[in-house]
Design brief:
The protein is an alpha+beta fold. It is built from eleven helices and eleven strands. Helix 6 packs across helix 8. It is elongated, with a radius of gyration of 22 Å.
């Protein structure tokens, strides 16, 4: 009878299983609560594992040669590589049809009204050039939020208890980008953005922040970032900013750009994209148009 039940159990799992590659060396536990790890098993970075199912932010996987071989690991430890034909088609459709807004802040303007933030105090002392930083990557429509997130975590997020949200395990490469292009992580902005928006973009924080931060870097290091730095302390017009954006990312691409202002200062750039990835030119194809109410703004200089 026991053998029969085991056969039924694994037969059911087989319908939803898929392959995934380990992004880092995470512990692989016997149980969902992570209270036991026989043989002190860890994933090997770069190795492929069979995933049976996903449950409560965890993957049930198979670790060959271990007893028990079925182990629970955090979702962010693995990146799916294959799935059933049906699931592959669904994922491919989501990837190409997903519409999002890449929201970039001009950090100097943000810190004008948030001078007590730790990241702003650090920025004011820094001799590094001013630049655009990541506010967030927001899947649309705007109510597409908190996908599969526990109600307790949602409550903490809405009460701005961001540092009380789960810490994200990101690669060294992604953290290096975050230190430059998302200084708000010092205040827990990364945890907030993942919980509220990232969970609707991907099931993996590494993928979400890799794409979002890579796109931020691409814009900041383009002619757009150079134009803003060259005009610190001066007023710019939307029409000129759009010309620069077209030169940087292709003729007509600026229809997807919005300039946002606050107190006459340039506060943010909103860039509408379609699909997932880290190459902006590709993501601008077929994306929705932007609508800017702000037609001119002052590019705030460092030293507020």
């Amino acid at each position: 009878m026991v053998k029969f039940l085991v056969f039924i159990f694994f037969s059911l799992l087989a319908f939803g299983r898929f392959d995934a590659v380990a992004l880092k060396e995470c512990k692989a536990f016997n149980n969902l609560k992570h209270t036991k790890n026989s043989e002190d098993v860890s994933l090997k970075k770069g190795k492929h594992y069979l995933v049976y199912k996903e449950h409560k932010g965890q993957y049930l996987i198979r670790v060959e040669g271990k007893n028990p071989s079925q182990r629970w690991v955090d979702i962010e430890c693995l990146k799916p590589t294959t799935s059933s034909n049906t699931n592959s088609a669904k994922e491919a459709s989501k990837k190409t049809q997903l519409v999002s807004v890449l929201v970039l802040s001009w950090q100097n303007s943000f810190c004008q009204t948030h001078q007590n933030r730790k990241e702003c105090r650090i920025l004011n002392r820094s001799k590094a050039p001013s630049h655009l930083v990541l506010h967030g990557l927001w899947p649309q429509p705007r109510n597409n939020q908190y996908c599969g997130v526990d109600k307790k975590l949602i409550a903490k997020d809405k009460h701005h208890q961001w540092r009380a949200l789960p810490k994200l395990n990101l690669s060294k490469e992604t953290m290096k980008l975050m230190e430059i292009y998302m200084p708000g992580y010092i205040s827990g902005l990364d945890r907030h953005e993942w919980i509220k928006h990232g969970t609707c973009y991907s099931n993996n924080p590494e993928e979400y922040f890799h794409d979002a931060l890579s796109l931020t870097k691409e814009v900041d290091q383009s002619l757009v970032g150079e134009y803003l730095r060259a005009n610190e302390g001066s007023k710019i017009d939307l029409v000129n900013l759009k010309r620069v954006f077209d030169k940087a990312f292709g003729k007509g691409s600026s229809i997807h750009l919005e300039m946002r202002c606050k107190n006459r200062l340039l506060s943010e750039l909103w860039i509408h994209i379609k699909g997932k990835g880290d190459k902006l030119k590709e993501l601008l194809k077929g994306a929705p148009k932007g609508r800017s109410k702000c037609k001119s703004a002052i590019v705030d200089a460092k030293g507020y």
